[in-house]
Structure formats: structure tokens, C-alpha cells
Specification:
Elements lengths: L1 H22 L22 E9 L3 H18 L6 E17 L4 E17 L5 E22 L3 E18 L2 E21 L3 E7 L1 E2 L4 E8 L1
């Protein structure tokens, strides 16, 4: 978990540094009569591609909790099990098209991995789970603060998740699930070509994630 947190912190610093370095290289728009500088307008459409890394998703937390709970009840009612979960991380690849100054439809691809170990009261390893999810979610984001260098937004994502669950007691299985995710608040900062992002999410995407992207 600490390794994942360090990875997210490094990604956040990098996400802030890249667009900041690019600001000084950007041509300045001084505006013309009737066309103020940095007017709130966009080419139609403007495309964005970004990558991100984050801590565990809300789904990952709940899935791990119930997996450990069921394991404990099924194998040793009344015993106190020791569990340990290593979160491999949550990684995202996003595409959005800026069709309006306040509206961005797009697509999210999210990968998440975790490993859970379960010991019995004699400190014997009972089971070891490797769980991964791969989610494909059409998405829409709504900007409510839309400045040239800073944008605040929220969003909703709906799609499908493929869950792969392997453990030491069986060959594992694959399950297809309905995917749902909400972005209560996100921020993008940068220029017309490069930007960093930090988001909070509830659902299949990372609870907190940071990344960077490009517009074209």
C-alpha cells in the first residue's frame, strides 16, 4: 500500500511539473478588438488523451473486504484470521472530446490489481488471491469552472468490467460485471497542449488518482 501511495505522489508531482514547464513556452494571445484574449471558446472538437495512476478503487476495497469475510466464515467460524492485502495499483487511459466548453464525452479504460493473503490462527497460509479488473466505460464530464489554465469538473461513467480472480485453491475464474463510476471532483491544469490532472472517484476508478495528458 505504501509503495502504491509513493507511486501516486510521484505521478502527482510529475503531473504538475509537465504543464508548468510548458506554460513558459506557449505563445501569448494579446487579443484583438471584439475578440478578448483567452475567450472561452474551443475548436470543435478538441481531443484529449491522458494516462493516470491511483490508489485502490471503491470497488476494489469492497471486493477485498467481502472476499476476506467470506473466506473467514467458510473456513473457520469463530477463529481470528490474519489477512494482508497488497494493492498493485489502479491505472487509467482516458480519451475525451471537448464538444462544448462545459461538456466532454469520452471513454475510460481502467486496470486494477490486488493480492490478498489469508492465514489461519496457526499462522498457516490458507489462501492467496490475485484479483484483477479491466473496465471499459463510456464517460461524460461536466466542467463548472472553465478557465484557460484550470478546469474543475465532475463526471459519470457506465460500462463493463472483466474481473479475473485466481487463488491457490483453484484455477480461478473470470466474471463480467456492470461497471459504474462517479467523479465528484476533478481538476485539470495546464495549457492548450499539455495538462496534469487530479481526480477523486467512487466506483471502478481509483479513489484518488493523478496523471497527465495531451490535447490535439
Amino acid at each position: 500500500m505504501m509503495h502504491t501511495m509513493r507511486t501516486v505522489m510521484i505521478a502527482a508531482v510529475f503531473a504538475m511539473a509537465v504543464p508548468c514547464m510548458a506554460w513558459g513556452q506557449e505563445p501569448q494571445n494579446i487579443g484583438t478588438p471584439g475578440n478578448p484574449p483567452f475567450a472561452d471558446s474551443y475548436r470543435s472538437p478538441v481531443s484529449e488523451v491522458s494516462v493516470s495512476v491511483g490508489i485502490v478503487s471503491g470497488f476494489g476495497c469492497m471486493y477485498d473486504f467481502f472476499k476476506v469475510l467470506v473466506e473467514g466464515v467458510a473456513n473457520a467460524i469463530g477463529n481470528h484470521y490474519k489477512t494482508e492485502t497488497d494493492f498493485i495499483g489502479t491505472y487509467g487511459l482516458d480519451y475525451y472530446a471537448q464538444v462544448k466548453s462545459w461538456l466532454r464525452p469520452g471513454m475510460k479504460v481502467v486496470y486494477e490489481g490486488l493480492c490478498t493473503k489469508v492465514w489461519d490462527t496457526s499462522n498457516v497460509l490458507v489462501n492467496k488471491y490475485y484479483t484483477t479488473t479491466l473496465s471499459f466505460m463510456p464517460s461524460v464530464q461536466f466542467s463548472y469552472l472553465n478557465r484557460r489554465h484550470v478546469k474543475l469538473y465532475s463526471g459519470i461513467d457506465l460500462g463493463v468490467t472483466f474481473l479475473f480472480d485466481n487463488n491457490k485453491q483453484s484455477s480461478g475464474n473470470a466474471t463480467t460485471l456492470f461497471a459504474l463510476n462517479a467523479t465528484p471532483i476533478g481538476v485539470r491544469f495546464g495549457n492548450d497542449r499539455m495538462f496534469g490532472l487530479v481526480e477523486t472517484n467512487l466506483g471502478m476508478d481509483a479513489l484518488v488518482k493523478a496523471g497527465f495528458g495531451m490535447r490535439f
